[in-house]
Amino acid sequence: MRSIIRILLFPVTTVLSLVVAVFRLINQLSNMALSLLAFLLLILGLAVMLLLQDKTNGLRILGISLLISPFGLPLIITFLIEMLGLFKDMLKEI
User: Fold this and answer.
1) Average of pLDDT values for 22-31?
2) Which end of the chain, N or C, is less packed with Cβ atoms under 10 Å?
């Protein structure tokens, strides 16, 4: 019975392996691009706050830069990709 389930789950685990690998690659590439953009937005936000004396818009720009920094949304996406990888590993162990 267990071998039948393994045979049926083999295509699913193969597709999940490929999907996780592609998602990890896309995640790494987007993390590099978003890190650079977050740095530029940080500089822009500080410039708006210091040079233009507009603290409200400066804080909004800083908030956006925090959101797209590696500690914001990319961290959540990385967590979800790793959970998908753990699910794939769990299916392989059956």
Assistant:
1) 95
2) N
- Render pLDDT for 28-56 as a digit per residue (tens, 0 to 9): 999 999 999 999 999 999 999 999 999 99
Buried b (16+ CB within 10 A) or exposed e, 6-41: eeeeeeebeebeeebeebeeebeeebeebeeebeeb
The secondary structure of residue 37, as a DSSP letter, is H
Q: Which of 32, 54, 34 is nearest to 45 (CA)?
A: 54
In sequence order, which ranges of 52-93 are alpha helices (DSSP H)? Answer: 55-68, 73-92
Structural domain boundaries of the chain?
27-87
